[in-house]
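Hi there, hope your week has been kind to you so far. Thanks so much in advance, here it is.
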Amino acid sequence: MTSNTTVLTDRFATATGRAIAAGVVLVLCVAALMFVSTDLVQELFGYSQNIKAREPTFFIRISLLIGAIAAAFFLITSLSYYKRNKVAIAPWMFLSIGLVFFMIYVIVPIFQSISYSFTRWNGLYDINGIWTGEWVGLHNYKLLLNDPNFYTSLWNNLLWLLLFMLAVPIGLFIALFLNQTVRGIRIYKSLFFFPFVISQVVVGLIFTWAYNPEFGLLSEIWSWFFCETKTNIMGNLTRVCSPEPPSILGDETMATYGIIAAGLWPQIAYCMILYLTGLNNISSDQIEAGRLDGAKGWKMLRHVVLPQLKPATFIAIVVTVIGALRSFDMIATMTQGGPYGSSNVLAYYMYDQAVGEGVGRYGYGSAIATVLFLIMLVYISYFLWRMYQDEMEAR
């Protein structure tokens, strides 16, 4: 009995030597991270200009960060507390690396962008790597309040949000249609899912060609009803249309709707896949019980099927809302915000002001990004609260 207790104690004992070595390495890496700078790297390696030392400084910091993470891992796994509570701690250790990089590349840049929104900065550093911005307080936000292009972009974002929600019921309808056991159904499912795997840029190009009033698909369909082929004075065949095919992407009032229609194509496919997955997990017992109670058609869908699809609906709505608010690729590919800025959204207008036509307005672009972030934060916080409430009710 005593021998078994001794073996068990040794198993959970702290590996002192390993812990001390890992702790020393961790302290050294963290200390080096705090003191390594471009000025130090410039002096050590003899660079003539400070800006040339920025790239090696970056790689040195990344190496030190990786070393610190590895040392922390060895230190924690050497402790007696970890060995006794491995099941509870191990998942957090797997998450820790992702959380660290998420903090560095997502959370920190968010706060940097918010801080830049209070400055006037052209996005450049001087030859010595010194920041050239100027603190202006709320000046950029005051400019936003008087900027008609900002309100146009905000309104277009609301249009995206409202019309993009059509993807949810349409995706549900297609999923119900495809949720059948008939011959060749897998091929049909693949064809409906195909738009989602295509790059957003490719989708934008496809619809740009389709909308072309001269040779696009829309033009060809238009010619079936409103055009005829005539022989001109030169003896050549000419297509004459009355009225002419619409230039969707060249019309200020139609461009945004045309882009949203293009964006809906892959979004509907994504919602369809979510609902197909949900339909596969529906309890057959509840379906049979509903049939015995006389439920069929709309009643079956409303009272039996839809309640079981609530998790899929929640995810579909969240992803669709976020996709609508951060829409960028389609606008950049199809219209670049035109014509005359009529199809701008906040994400593209932010980019345009920072590095596009308004090159050098990083502070103003950051103010637009901050507004967009706050709007998304409201929606995301609401959905997270709803998710928490559902979890609590399930318990």
Q: What stands out?
A: The longest helix spans residues 362-394. The chain has a mean pLDDT of 84. Residues 294 and 300 are 9 Å apart (CA to CA).
